[in-house]
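I am still getting used to backbone structure tokens and would like to learn alongside you. Please make up or recall a protein chain and show it to me in full. Would you write everything just below, so we can both look at the same thing?
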Amino acid sequence: MSGHPLDAARLKVDRALKDLHAAQAELSHWAESEPYHITVDPDPPTGWHSVRVHIPQPPPANAAAGIGEAAVKLRSALNYVVLQLRKLHPSPIPKKLADGRTPLRAQFPIFRSETEFEGTGRRMIHGVPAQWQAEIKSLQPYDERGNPLPNHPLAIVNRLSNVDKHTDLLPHLYPIPSDEPLHVLFKLPPGIEITEFRANRGALEDDTEVYAFRTNAVGDYTQVLVELDVAFHVAFGEAELGLERLGDLVSEIGAVVRHFEPAFA
């Protein structure tokens, strides 16, 4: 008894989730060792204080393998959808299309603009029924005005799978921005105010400044500040791509696969 045409795509999504769980286990084990700590380095003559993170044990590189594998599997799941859609009306692929262009290898096109989709994406889905070509186009990561949507799940999968092919997708510690006002976040003594402030939103290495601020009165308030619990999370490639967002991404790509189930009803 033959299975459903989308079984291979579904399997890829399921295996991507297992890869994500493996990466999560690696990071959980790392976090249990309390691998980083915060210090506050004051400069009393100027009033500046530098809040720094020390990471003697960086996030495990092994976690990157799981994330990279998950991204590639999600991309493959989308490609399997196109391959199966082509089989609905099988016919030989011509060497040249009607407009004279050469067909491209079948894959799920992901483009940031309609111009790119029509120029290259159509050549990837030659042979897919027109109705489902239209559905593929409707899922592209750009809005009705043609503006790219970098946080769209297809755009994220495309970036992650390309990053994994060309560079190390290593995990990094990132600060979690606080919504608290500065006087609440830093809890300075009465009468002391912050007059200048800067924050680092990028990937953090060992002995990296996370925050720095200057007060209106010269002094050393280190003992007040070291009690703060500055929040961090581990992300892959981009600050927003932590494990929670990646878990959502697996679900979103699974939903894209299911979107095409009516084609095979």
